[in-house]
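Write out the 3D structure for:
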Amino acid sequence: MAKPANSGQHSADLVQAFTAAFTSDDIESFLDLIAPDGEWVIMATGETFRGIDQIRQLARRSVAGRDHPTGTGIKPTNVFTNAEGTKLCWEYMHSCVVTDQWPASKNRPAPGTKLELPIVPICDIRKDKVVKIREYFNLQTITEPGTLHKVYSLRPAQDSANP
C-alpha cells in the first residue's frame, strides 16, 4: 500500500502533539487531536466513550483522580507508528497519587495511594486525527495496589524473587 504524500511528517507531527498533550493536563489540546466521532475504549473494563463530549468527561475525571508530585507523571517508554501513519502505539509508565476525586465505583484505591501503572493506548488515525483509542492496562494494579498476581507461574504469588 502506498503512503499518502507527507504521511511521515503528518504522523510525526501528530505523535509530537499527542505526546505534548498526553503528558500534561491540557485536555483541550488533546481533544484537538481527536476526530469528532472518536472513540476511547478502556479494554480492562469494557467502558467505551464516544465523541468529544464523552472523551472530555473521561479526561477530566482522569486528571481530577490523580496527582503528580515531583518525580511522578506520565512518562512515555515506547512510541511508534506504522509506515502508513494509521496506527500509533504509545506505551507509558504512569506514576501518581490517587486523589479523593478518583472516579471509579467500589473497587478504587484509597486517596493518597501511590500507583505505578504501565499503560498502552493503541490509536487508529485517519486524516491526521485519532479516531479510536484502545487503552490496555492491568486492572488489578489499580484495584489491588501492591498485590503481586501471577497467572502462569507454578510458584505462589508471594514468591516474587523466583518467577
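The longest strand covers residues 114-126.
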